[in-house]
Every structure is written in C-alpha cells, then in structure tokens.
Amino acid sequence: MKQIPESIDDTIVDFIQKNERVTIPMLRKFCMQEGMGTDGPFAMQIRPKVILWSGMSRAFIETIQRLLDGKCIFMWPSSPPENMRQGGVQAITAINYLPESAPDWRWFPICFMTEPMGDNYDTQDLGFDMEATPIWK
What we know:
Layout: H1 8-19, E1 22-23, H2 24-33, E2 39-47, E3 50-56, H3 58-69, E4 74-77, H4 80-85, E5 106-107, E6 110-113, E7 133-135
Parallel strand pairs: 3-5
Antiparallel strand pairs: 1-6, 2-3, 2-7, 4-6
C-alpha cells in the first residue's frame, strides 16, 4: 500500500478540480489508490434518516469533513446514474428532495465540486441546507 501523502487534502482538491464532478464512489477509489483506507463502519448524513454514503472509514469521513468545513470542496446534488457511472450506489432508496420526515433511511446522492452552488441554485428547493454530519455509531 502506498504511503498517504501529507498533502492528501491538496491531492483530493486537485483531483476534484480536474474531474469537475466527483461522487463518493469515485473519490473512494481515488483515495484508495493514494493509500488511504476508505472502508469502514461509518456513514455521513445530512439530517436524521438521510445519508450521503455509508461503509466509510473514520479517516475518510474526517478528510471529507475537513475539506467541506474549509470550503475547499462543496456538495452538489447528484443522481443514482451518475453515482453508478462513477463506481456504485447505496443499497437503500434514493430521494431527490427531503420531506419533513422520512419513515425509513434514504440515500441522497451527492457529488463534490470545487465551486459553491451560488445564488443561481436554490437549496430551498431541496428542502435542506447542504451540510453533512458524520455518524459514528
């Protein structure tokens, strides 16, 4: 296994910038090639019962969260087909918007970009703010 570069954050940002839209499956594959373990028992959620992805390592989630918090990368809505093309989908139902309360766990597909959504994209249409929270359970 390769040594994880000290500048893994910069490496990830460069990768996302070169590819424009990077889903979590594509980012996982890239990070594994760079020597980072990405598989684990953890998930990221937007709000209760709505996940971005599951089966991730703590280190992988912490790296993503650090880049999001530092506004180096930004989440954008994606789709199951885009995720499939880039390497996978979650085994739970995908949703395009978030109702007030979801009866079961749902997957909200996202991708990462280096540009924020901006004023021309209204996150109110999605029914939530695009902020992720790790699930350490």
